[in-house]
Each structure stands twice: as structure tokens, then as C-alpha cells.
Write a structure and sequence with these properties.
alpha/beta, oxidoreductase activity, acting on CH-OH group of donors, 7-stranded mixed β-sheet, 2 domains
């Protein structure tokens, strides 16, 4: 049975691929010819010629992702400072602007294509039982390939950072930096004390939702869980509402678009794209970081930093660069022949991520006979959709089906520990398509689900109206770690995600799936005859249907990252033996080196991590300015 289904799935996939590719080519040509706002020729970054590279800069920033773009823009505001930004990828291609197409760039040349180590406890439906971890290899980093959800996290997250011994990182302090980065454009928030206006990153609602959005909100209201003011980043977080996104005129507003395109022409800011940083240059005696070595165009280059090197390469590459440069756990570095410069056992540890369960897919009957209420992708990949996007600036390519409505809820475990706290432990994405909606072209490929599993569980509901309710575990107790495989920075480290190591994490996930099912049983959803895809039971036929064991099976098979790895260069006070950077983001035991990106987070925030990463960069830039203003030598001890 499986072999037959797999054969059918493969053939249908191949037959769909050609027409879909044709539409994408048509879309790309239409943008080039008729959408100068996307082409944006005047503001697109032009890298310097490598012959123009100065022998030294005041600041060398490694990584042009969300944090690196913000840092480059903010540090170069001081005309007396010279700044170099090194990014391994190139500029964003035109199609990256389109919200709907974000999954297309996963497992593409614009993605680093990381994989976790195989496990028998999660990602069981995935190829080789490995979780696929996309990371942006492009100017703008993950802000250029993500789903653009603008969620800051909970005020208690940042108060916890301060309580852990990191002064200045409490919510009242960091709110200023969230506001500084933001240009809130959603009507009704003009006077909100929680939001900023005129910042580099514009925030809007997603355009062109499906008819399901109103029904999702009706279901949440019937459970008494609609968000009181529709703002997860304001007074309270708990509840359901359509999310805000990092969008400008309905299109992606990446860190590249927001920060770099308005600053790259400054004479004191140089940018080199397709520059792969191989290691830091450190003086062993003084432990001063002098600069970096990088490869560009098959030629190696050395560039020195007069003041500081700033690592902003992300939660996977920043700790790896530290380790290959001799900074990290001695027991990892010495066996690989790496000279130990500074033993820091916390480098690469404390790895956290928001694991989700993406398999809870419900089919339903449309209330509009003869038309679909959810997104059926082949029906939308048409010449008419291209014209609607190009000419009317509306339609399918502006939509964000993966989470038309978002919810934050507290399970019984969170309520038991903090009965009245607004600190949800589960986030829910209510999406207007499932794995069967695109014939396996994008969703299956992006999640790395095996053809055999897809054929067994989703082929039977192919192109039917469906929706997904995916719970995310917000504050996992489990911790993973990175393990260096080679002294060569090009060799990806082993990623031990360790999802569900702590049994409470699975217990919370099961409660999240049960909450999702309760939403599907509301009168609003039952008007649609919403029905859980019964074929998913094939993964664990021995368990009782809809029992806790059934939901656990779903969680272990359809485990999927929501692209939020953090914590691998933990910010901590001096007494924490596993801290990597201090609250001023300086790397312990070294001079003239900071890490400023998602890797410094001591604990993962309650929500998507791009907005917190931008906040960290904004605050990090101010810290650098303060230190070098008050102390001519940067205040290094």
C-alpha cells in the first residue's frame, strides 16, 4: 500500500512542478518589468570591490542577519567610526519580498540547510529522523526567509533575564529598544505607549486572508479566548488574534530593507557580500581579538579591528566561530587539534528552540459550494494571481496562510505554577492550509517529511479544504548543545536538539494539541464539519484514538522547528560557570570581542525570536556607544 501511494505522490508532484515553476518565472518577470517598488534599484546594496577593503576598521561585524544589519546601521551613525559588515550570502532576490513565498527559500541556495542529529524521540516522520533547521544565508539573514511574525515575547521573559544576574535587560529597559526599532502602521495603535513610529522595521497586518480568519476568531470567542485588544506586544499577551508582521506595504520588511538600504551609502560603512569568515585572529598572550580571516572569491583576506570584532552570525554560527578560533569547551577543541585560547565550557550549550507539532490537520466542508475557503495552492498559482499581485497589489502572494490567527494560552501546568500570571506556555498557529494543500511541493519539502509518510497520511486528503492548528512549546525545559565536528568553519557542527528530554515538555505539548482540538470542536468549526485527518493515526495504530498517547505520537512524528534556536553564547553574571558573555555582551576572558545576536539569550522568549534579536542589536549598539564614549579604550578589563 505504501509503495503504491508513494509512486502516486511522486508522479503527481512531478506533474505539478512544471506549471508551478512557469508561474514563478512569470511572477519574477512581472516584478522586474512593473514593480519598481520591489526592484528598488536606488536603495539596493552595492558591495564594495574587494580591492577597496581597508586594512583595518574600527568595528568588524561578522554576519549580516537581523542583528548584524541593525548593528552596522547603528554603529555607522557615528561618522568618526569606520564599520565593516561581512555577510556570507548575497543580496535578497526579488521574490523574497512576497510573504506567501517564504517557504520556497528553505532548502535553497539562500539557506544554510542545517540538520539536527537523528533521534528516536522526535522528527520521526522526517527524512532520516532528522529535523531540518533553515537559517538565512543572505543579507538580512532569517528576517529575509522567515514568516515575518512580529512577536516580542512576554514582559516576564526579560524580567527573568535581569533576575538571572543581567542588569539592564528587564522589560522596562528593553521596551525602549523594541519601540526604537519599530514603525507601527496598524490602525488603532497610533497613541499606544507600547509601540514606536518611524523606526526602521515597519509593522502591518498581513493582506488577503482567507475566509477562515473570521471563523478562527469566532471559534476563539466561543471559548472566551479572543485577545482583548488584538496586540500580543502590548498590555497583555494571552488570547487569540490575527498577528502583526514585519511588513512594508504588504511586503517583507527584512532587516536588510529596514536598516541597510537606508544606510549602506554612508562613507564610513563598507559591506562585503559572499564573504565567509573562517576564524577570529586572537593574540594568545593578551587574548585581544585583532580581527578576522575571511574568504571572498576563493581568496583569503585578513582585516583588523581597531576597536572591536562583533559576532552576529546567529545561534549556530557564532558559537562555532568561537570554537574554531580556540574559544570554548576544552574537551571539544583539543581533540580536533584546535589551540585553546580561552576555556569557556558554555559555548555551544544552553541550546533552546520552539518545537511545534505541525501534523494536526483538519479537513472541512466549505460553506460556499463549489469554492474553497482555504488556500489550495495549485488553484492560486495562476496567471490571474500574478496579474492581481503585479497590477492590483493584492491577492494570494500577499497572504500568510501559515498563521492567519495566532493564540497564546496557558496549560494546566502553567496555571498550577503561576495561577494568575499572564505568561502563556503554548503558542498556537491557526493556518488556512495543510500539508495536502500544495501537493507536497513546498510544505512537505520544507518540513523534510518522507515521501512514504506523506503518501500514507496526507495523500488521501490531497487538495481538500483543510486547516492546521499547530501548538508551539514556549519555554522548554530541555536543553540541547552543539558539537564541533571539525576545525573547519565550513563543516556544520552536530546539532543535538534534545527536544522533549524533560518529560514536562511533552506533557505541555500534549495539552497544546488538546487545546487545538477543542478549538476544532467549537460550534464555529463544527459548522464546517471540521474533522481531524484520520490517516495520521497510521503512525501509531496501537494507541487509543485522541488519547494522550495519540497526541504524543503526533508530536513525536511531526516535530518541526519554528526556526528559533537561541542561547548558545549565554549572557550571564560572572558566577555562572556556563556564561559566555557578560551583560555588556563582552566575551569572557577576551578583549575587544562581543557577541550580539540570538545566541546570547539566557532563556528563550515567549514568542517568535526575530523582534527580540533586533532589540538585542539595538541595545547592543547603544552599549558599544556608551562604552567607547566613556572609556577611550572601550572599558575592557
Amino acid at each position: 500500500m505504501t509503495a503504491v501511494n508513494t509512486f502516486v505522490t511522486m508522479w503527481r508532484f512531478l506533474l505539478t512542478l512544471g506549471p508551478s515553476a512557469l508561474v514563478i518565472l512569470m511572477l519574477n518577470k512581472g516584478i522586474k518589468d512593473q514593480r519598481p517598488d520591489i526592484v528598488d534599484e536606488l536603495h539596493r546594496v552595492r558591495t564594495i570591490f574587494i580591492e577597496q577593503l581597508r586594512p583595518s576598521y574600527d568595528f568588524v561585524i561578522v554576519g549580516g542577519g537581523s542583528a548584524g544589519c541593525a548593528l552596522a546601521a547603528r554603529l555607522s551613525e557615528n561618522p568618526a567610526w569606520s564599520v565593516l559588515l561581512l555577510e556570507a550570502g548575497g543580496d535578497e532576490p526579488l521574490l523574497m519580498d512576497l510573504p506567501q513565498l517564504y517557504p520556497v527559500f528553505q532548502r535553497s541556495p539562500w539557506d544554510w540547510k542545517y540538520l539536527t542529529e537523528p533521534s528516536d524521540r522526535y522528527c520521526l516522520a522526517m527524512e532520516d529522523q532528522q529535523c531540518f533547521w533553515p537559517r538565512g544565508k543572505v543579507l538580512g539573514g532569517c528576517s529575509s526567509i522567515n514568516a515575518m511574525m512580529y512577536i516580542r515575547g512576554n514582559r516576564r521573559d526579560y524580567d527573568l533575564w535581569a533576575q538571572l544576574g543581567n542588569p539592564g535587560w528587564d522589560y522596562n529597559n528593553v521596551l525602549h529598544y523594541f519601540r526604537k526599532a519599530e514603525d507601527m502602521r496598524v490602525p488603532g495603535f497610533e497613541e499606544s505607549p507600547y509601540h514606536g513610529h518611524g523606526g526602521p522595521i515597519s509593522v502591518e497586518r498581513y493582506r488577503s486572508p482567507s475566509p477562515l480568519l473570521e471563523l478562527f476568531m469566532e471559534a476563539a470567542t466561543q471559548l472566551g479566548m479572543a485577545h482583548p485588544d488584538g496586540d500580543f506586544n502590548g498590555r497583555t499577551q494571552t488570547g487569540f488574534a490575527p498577528p502583526h508582521g514585519t511588513l512594508r506595504d504588504g511586503l517583507r520588511c527584512s532587516a536588510n530593507k529596514g536598516y541597510i538600504r537606508r544606510s549602506w551609502q554612508r562613507p564610513n560603512l563598507d559591506i562585503v557580500l559572499k564573504a565567509f569568515v573562517e576564524r577570529l585572529v586572537i593574540e594568545p598572550g593578551s587574548k585581544r581579538v585583532r580581527g578576522v580571516r575571511f574568504e571572498h572569491g576563493l581568496v583569503q583576506h585578513l582585516v583588523l579591528a581597531n576597536k572591536e570584532v562583533v559576532l552576529a552570525a546567529g545561534a549556530l554560527a557564532s558559537p562555532q566561530l568561537l570554537m574554531v578560533s580556540g574559544v570554548g569547551p576544552a574537551e571539544q577543541l583539543l581533540p580536533l587539534g584546535i589551540d585553546l585560547v580561552q576555556h569557556l565550557p558554555g559555548v555551544g550549550g544552553n541550546l533552546q528552540d520552539h518545537i511545534s507539532t505541525s501534523g494536526a490537520i483538519y479537513t472541512f466542508d466549505s460553506l460556499k459550494p463549489g469554492t474553497h475557503m482555504s488556500f489550495i495552492v495549485p488553484e492560486q498559482l495562476t496567471k490571474e494571481s500574478v496579474e492581481e499581485f503585479i497590477q492590483d497589489q493584492n491577492g494570494f502572494f500577499y497572504a500568510m496562510p501559515v498563521s492567519e490567527v495566532m493564540g497564546f494560552v496557558s496549560t494546566k501546568y502553567q496555571v498550577a505554577s503561576m495561577p494568575h500570571a499572564d505568561w502563556p506556555d503554548v503558542q498556537l498557529f491557526l493556518g488556512s492550509y495543510g500539508y495536502g494543500a500544495d501537493g507536497g511541493m513546498i510544505g512537505r519539502r520544507g518540513a523534510a517529511i518522507t515521501l512514504a509518510n506523506y503518501a500514507d497520511t496526507f495523500e488521501p486528503i490531497q487538495y481538500q479544504d483543510s486547516f492546521v492548528i499547530a501548538p508551539l512549546l514556549m519555554r522548554p525545559r530541555s536543553r540541547g548543545y552543539l558539537q564541533l565536528r571539525s576545525s573547519d568553519a565550513r563543516v556544520h557542527p552536530l546539532i543535538h536538539a534534545n527536544y522533549y528530554d524533560d518529560p514536562l515538555d511533552m506533557a505541555v505539548m500534549v495539552e497544546g494539541l488538546k487545546m487545538a482540538h477543542r478549538l476544532a470542536q467549537t460550534p464555529a468549526m463544527q459548522r464546517l464539519n471540521a474533522t481531524l485527518n484520520i490517516y495520521e493515526w497510521r503512525n501509531c495504530p496501537e494507541v487509543e484514538y485522541l488519547s494522550d498517547a495519540f497526541w504524543e505520537c503526533l508530536a513525536r512524528y511531526y516535530s518541526q522547528t519554528i526556526y528559533h534556536p537561541v542561547g548558545t553564547c549565554k549572557m550571564a553574571p560572572a558566577q555562572d560557570p556556563y556564561g559566555v558573555v557578560d551583560p555588556r555582551l563582552r566575551v569572557r576572558g577576551l578583549r575587544n570581542l562581543r557577541v550580539i545576536d540570538a545566541s546570547i539569550m539566557p532563556t528563550i522568549p515567549t514568542g517568535n525570536t526575530n523582534a527580540p534579536t533586533l532589540m538585542i542589536a539595538e541595545r547592543g549598539a547603544d552599549i558599544i556607544k556608551e562604552d567607547w564614549h566613556h572609556y577611550p579604550h572601550g572599558g575592557w578589563l
